Structures are given as structure tokens and as C-alpha cells.
User: What shape does this take?
Amino acid sequence: MRSIIIMATIKDVAKLASVSPSTVSRTLSGKIPVNEKTKLRVLDSVKKLNYSPNTIAKALKECKTKTIAFVLPNIQNMIYPLLAMEVEQEARKHGYFVIFCDTQENQEREQEYIDKLKGSLVDGFLFATALVDDKSNAILKLKEENYPVVCIIRETNNTSNTLVSDNEYGGYLATNYLIDKGFKKIATVIGKTDISVYRDRTKGYLKALKEKGIEVDKNLMWKEIDKDLKSIQNKVLKNFKSGNIPDAIFAQSDPIAFEVLIAISRLGISVPKDVSVIGFDNISYASNFNLTTVEQPIHLMAIDAVKMLISIIENKMEINNLKKIYDVKIIERSSVT
Assistant: This one.
């Protein structure tokens, strides 16, 4: 028969030493002075019972779990598995573990994760889910409650410590690149407008057209409405079949660009012979599609975000609304002629 080992508890030690559990705790922590005779009695009881403090419970109580939560908007979007991998690798270098939370762009689900984790299970939060107009103000509330918080990729109006690419310049760079190639009828496929990156990339697109004296055609600004990226294929097919055919397309993320390329292929149209396409991100699959794209430094951003969050957790830097903007650049491949 297998024997059952019953571990001694702090209450058992307190009972044997004829003191309160709090006295045992104070004695073992060494942070608060305890009468010498009482201390010896407690330590003797600890030895007799072979008592080992619950280090997990202690860590939770002291809010030092060496664990961070990384809150993601949609793990099916190819940029986020890459970002998650980079974050996890960097966190492990510093002795931290990562809990991943996939919100599926649902703010109620995000709040559930926060409520579950913020009490004692994690030391801080890394968010890639920020919305420009966050009606729940979940991230701001955490910051007001003095929880270590860092945002990456996206930002809110009431931004916390944030690391983002220069998205407006990236949109300008992509559009200007197409204009310099001789294209004037340039469509853009826009992500959800409550996400900062798409608002900023659209600003850059419009700025480039204006500077070159190209009139903005609203019919060439195709907005992604549905959550499913595949809805983009339907949007592209609908526009092309209705005769609204551009010379070039600026897809405002690489995952969007992949759907654009698939839709164009379904129509039997050649890229870049008939229409050129440029994306934004330069995730690993971009090279498989021979996609010209705007690169944002995801690897560097992930490393810096983890370091910033850990610095806040370990009181090496203040929570002071830092914002770091990263340079972007064009990566040329064969999807633009």
C-alpha cells in the first residue's frame, strides 16, 4: 500500500510552539523582531515537524511570482504567435514565465483574464490588445491600481508605457514607394479603425497621396469590417468584379496582404504584372509570398517590452507613461514591379 505523506502546516508549528501562526510567520521571515525564547521555540518546532514554508504561497503573498501575463488579441493572426515566441524567450532569460491570454478581440473576455490574474497570479501585464477608444479602460484602470503594465504594437488614447512602430510614417513610406514606381490608382485595405496602427497607417497613406497631388478616391479605401481575415478576400473580389480595379494595393498588414494575394490569384490576375501589392510587418511568411512589405522590428520590440515590464516590476524604473517609437523600412521583393 502506498503511504500518504501529510505535510506540516504553519498552524501545526504554531500549536506545538504555543504561539500564533502570525508569530511563526514573523519568526521565519526575519523581518520583524521576535522574542529570543519564542524564536528558539518556533525554530525547534519547525525542526521537529520538518516544516517547509509554502514558497508558492509566499511568492503569491509578496506579489513575486516571476510570472507575467501577455494579453493577445487573436492568436490566429500570424504576427502574434511570432511576437509571443519572442516575448517568452526574452522573459525566460530573466527568470520569468509567461501566461498567454487570447482575447479574440473581446473586451469582456479580456477583463475576465485581468480579474482572474491581477490578484496574485502575475507580477505584471503586457498588452497587445489596446484599442484607441478603450471604453472599458481596462489598461488605464490597472495602471491606476499601480499594476506594472506595458503595451506593445498598439496603443490607447490614455496610453501606458508603450512600444510601437512609426505606423504613420510606415503608411506614408509604403504609399510613396508605390507612387515612385509610377502607380497613381492605389487602393489600401484597412484594418479595424479602433486599432491605432490602422488609423496611423491610413494617415500616412493619405499624406503621401496629398503630397504627390493624387486625389483621394474613397472607393479605393477598402475597410476590413469582419473579424475573419478571409472576409478581405470577398471585399477584394467584389471590388475587382465591379470594375473598381487599382494598379497597386497597400495592404495595411502582412496577414491582410496574404488574403489580398489569394483573392487576386482566384481571379486569375497576375502579381505584379497586372497589380502590385505591398504589405506591412515583414513576418516570416512574407518571404514565402515574395511580398514587398514595410518591416517593423518585432524582435527588438518584444525584447524591449519584456525588459521594460520587468524593470517596472522590480522597481528599477517608474511607471511614467514612456512611449518608444521604432523605425520602419521597406523590404523589397517581387510583389511590386
Notes: Confidence is low (pLDDT under 50) at residues 1-5. The chain has three domains: 10-53, 67-164+298-325, 167-296. The CA atoms of residues 13 and 47 lie 9 Å apart.
